[in-house]
From TrEMBL:
Protein name: LRAT domain-containing protein
Domain called LRAT: residue spans: 34-140
Pfam families assigned: LRAT (PF04970)
Signal sequence range: none
InterPro entries per the UniProt record, alphabetical: LRAT_dom
Lineage: Eukaryota, Metazoa, Spiralia, Lophotrochozoa, Mollusca
Amino acid sequence: MVYKQMLKYVMSIILNYMTQNETSLERGAHIAVEGNVAGIEYYHHGIFLGHTIGVADFGGNDVSDAKPRIVDIYRFTEEGKRKLYCIKYHPKQCLPPEQTARLAEEVVEHPSIWGPYDVIENNCEHFATRCKLGVAISKQIQEHIRQCLANPKVMLAHIVGLASVSPFLFYHGHRFRSPCTLL
């Protein structure tokens, strides 16, 4: 329980998440939804392209077909069941919103330039931060690696947790689309 509270606190500090109303989103916004698979909490990331277009994210039915794609905002939020966040950056830290959106659309149009899914090195947060910041990083993965190195018990819990949910990470339904699973 303490771990979950710490995770939520750290993630809120790192990325300054702010709850959003879907109608207030602007094209090019970096958005995320909370998720939980078998007790492992994560944030699934994407770039909002507009209400008539949807969200560019990095997902698929399984690891082998995961790629940058566009999904409807309601599918991204699991028909509104998953809490939606907009990640705020200082304007000098990120690309302009329209440039962010165009970059996401370009990668979706040419998915082979992005590379295969890898939970540690190439996940949905890497995709969204590359489009928004110009550099592909995953703060949630960095934080979990830091926690694992600082506490072997946390590392063991993550290894056991990941092994128990790995078959579910790319469930063939819309519920578990390409999550940014935390290690």
